[in-house]
Design brief:
This is (2Fe-2S) ferredoxin domain-containing protein. This protein is of the alpha+beta class and about 110 residues long. About 30% of the residues lie in helices and about 35% in strands.
């Protein structure tokens, strides 16, 4: 059975940083070889998808980064910048460890 993990990235910022974060995440998935992988004997795909709004601006404190949610676990990150993509892919997706410095408490 195949499972898909999705990273929804908010692109509603005036700076366009959400689009840059999405591109950086896709690039890191390729570089680290985690776009398709096997975990626990199951095939897993990772998709990066942009969305207009995640309704997290107050929690992000309108910082210079983007908000993103990782599904199916529902982990919410805030103020994510393109240079944070490597840590999210390596730690969260590769090692199942939350990147605490970017974590948003809802």
């Amino acid at each position: 059975m195949s499972q898909t993990r999705r990273l929804f990235v908010c692109t509603n910022q005036k700076s366009g940083v959400g689009d840059d974060v999405a591109k950086a995440l896709k690039k890191e998935l390729k570089i680290q070889g985690l776009k398709k992988l096997f975990t626990g004997g199951e095939k897993q795909r990772v998709r990066v998808q942009t969305c207009n709004c995640l309704d997290l601006c107050k929690q992000c404190k309108k910082g210079p980064g983007a908000a993103l949610i990782v599904y199916p676990e529902g982990t919410v990150y805030g103020n994510v910048r393109p240079n944070d993509a490597a840590a999210i892919v390596e730690d969260h997706l590769g090692r199942d460890r939350v990147v605490k410095r970017l974590l948003l408490e809802e």
